[in-house]
Amino acid sequence: MISSLKFKVIIMKKDENKLTSSLFIVPYLIMFVVFLIFPLAYGAYISMHEWSLIGGKGEFVGLANYMEILFSDGTSSNIFMNGLINTLIFVVLSVPALVVLALILALLLNSLPKRIQPFFRTVYFIPYSISVSIIAVIWLWMLDTNSGLVNQFLGNFGIGPIPWLTDTNYAWFSLVLATLWWTVGFNMIILINALNEVSEELYEAGSIDGASPWQKFVHITMPSIRPIMLFVVVTTTIASFNVYGQPYLMTRGGPGTSTEVLLMGIVRQAFELRDVGVASAMAVIMTLIIICISALQFKFLRNKEGV
């Protein structure tokens, strides 16, 4: 009888512990539903209606807004396609640089003495803690064609002035450069933590077998940090696809609309053309594109690298 009571008490305590543990995730679930699930569902709902910024909700149109974006030759379609192409250009230019440079910095910092590593980690991570508006002001001040610090410096050698923000090719270079300086520290910190988890015994075994530094990197380091590399590639791609602040503040989408990314086009559709329904449909399509690209990256890298 006593043993039976003890068993019941133990079961009750376990149930209470499970309930207590579950309560800790309730605030996150509430925020997840309020700030992610509900906006996504409501945005999809708006995208299937005629919805004016001034007039509000109109009649239900089903997939007509999506058809207008994808298959018509109107203003909305041109805004979307131009923004999508420019966004893909930025993704292609920025993601490899952000991943490769972060890995190089992580390897360099990881090779330094332990006592000075925290200093350099802090130095490289500080820009990431600054808001995008501050970043844009800094780079505008540096890259201004007439009075920018960079052109003044190059002028001492008889070079320039270079239209960093008013020529399309230079503008893309400037946007990627500013993004690199701003965000590469975040990827670097993640990769440094991954490198610290690689067993020293593996490197010692490689040294005994006569492996060169490059062979150790290819056959020990990279296989050991593959899951983290996959995470960095996918999250960096998603972040680059959602670029908005840098082109909006630095180039205003110019020259012309040559650096107007997709989020800028969605904002223009909603607040200048005042068509919230079509703008929401653009946002839904953008979300689906990001999901598809992320899924393909995950599938390709996982199968190729055996993650």
Automatic annotation (TrEMBL):
PANTHER family: ABC TRANSPORTER PERMEASE PROTEIN, DIACETYLCHITOBIOSE UPTAKE SYSTEM PERMEASE PROTEIN NGCF. GO terms for cellular component: plasma membrane. It holds the Pfam family BPD_transp_1. The chain crosses the membrane at residues 21-42, 88-110, 122-142, 170-192, 228-245, 276-296. PROSITE patterns: ABC_TM1. Keywords: Cell membrane, Ion transport, Membrane, Nickel, Nickel transport, Transmembrane, Transmembrane helix, Transport. This is ABC transporter permease subunit. GO terms for biological process: nickel cation transport; transmembrane transport. Residues 84-297 form the ABC transmembrane type-1 domain.
